[in-house]
Amino acid sequence: MAGTNPRAARIAKLIQRVIAASIETQLHDKRLENVTITEVRVTNDLQLARVFWTQLGDEGKEQGERKRATQALRQAKGRLRAAVGAKAGLRLTPELQFMYDEVPSEAHEIEDILATAHKRDEELAKARANAQYAGEEDPYWHNDEPEDGESDDGFDESDDAEDADGFDGFNDADSEADGALIDDTVADGPADGSAVDNDADSDAPDLHSAHEA
């Protein structure tokens, strides 16, 4: 395999460049327009070269297009092997085995998903930046500074003044009631006194009658 033998690794890189250039400049097959050679692995004995390829774009997602590209590569295998032999200068050209590479396709789909998510995040951030609040920006914010006429403990001085006036009114009303009660008591006093005096006069001896006698 490529990587275990330095010479096999160099030949694998060479085969990858030769096949990619041949597909683009010599074959001119429409079925191979979106085909990309992703990797080549050569055995240590240089007998076999596994050529991994993929098909990018929407064509890579359609099974029909993949089958047509696979058929085109099989048909061009002889020409591509001859091109490799001419460029590599090897006494024995490795046998070419084309294998579809699933990893780049999956990676491409992941990149599309990430790009879509990133675009959506940008749109949401832009929407938040242009958003306007229906009420206050922070409905839970309260001004702790006391307003004019209001003490630090949260009570309004005007309310205290009104309460004081109310108490004064109650005191005045009480005073008037007490005065009226006293007047009534005084007014009732002479009547009771006169009644006592009359009783006293009734008990006292009649001097006029005694004198006449």
UniProtKB/TrEMBL annotation:
Top-level division of the source organism's lineage: Bacteria
Predominant location category: cytoplasm
GO: which molecular function terms?
A: ribosomal small subunit binding
Question: Where, per UniProt, does this protein localize?
Answer: Cytoplasm
Cellular component aspect of the GO annotation: cytosol
List compositional bias (Acidic residues) regions by residue number.
145-177
Q: Where is this region: Disordered?
A: 129-213
PROSITE patterns according to UniProt: RBFA
Give the record's GO biological process terms.
Answer: maturation of SSU-rRNA
Keywords from the named record: Cytoplasm, Ribosome biogenesis
Q: Which Pfam families match?
A: RBFA (PF02033)
Q: Does the keyword GTP-binding apply?
A: no
Is Hydrolase found in the keyword set?
no
InterPro entries this protein is in?
KH_dom-like_a/b (IPR015946), RbfA (IPR000238), RbfA_dom_sf (IPR023799), Ribosome-bd_factorA_CS (IPR020053)
What family is this protein classified in? Answer: Belongs to the RbfA family.
Subunit-structure text: Monomer. Binds 30S ribosomal subunits, but not 50S ribosomal subunits or 70S ribosomes.
Role played = One of several proteins that assist in the late maturation steps of the functional core of the 30S ribosomal subunit. Associates with free 30S ribosomal subunits (but not with 30S subunits that are part of 70S ribosomes or polysomes). Required for efficient processing of 16S rRNA. May interact with the 5'-terminal helix region of 16S rRNA.
Q: What is this protein called?
A: Ribosome-binding factor A
To which species is this protein native? Bifidobacterium tibiigranuli
The gene from which this protein is expressed is rbfA
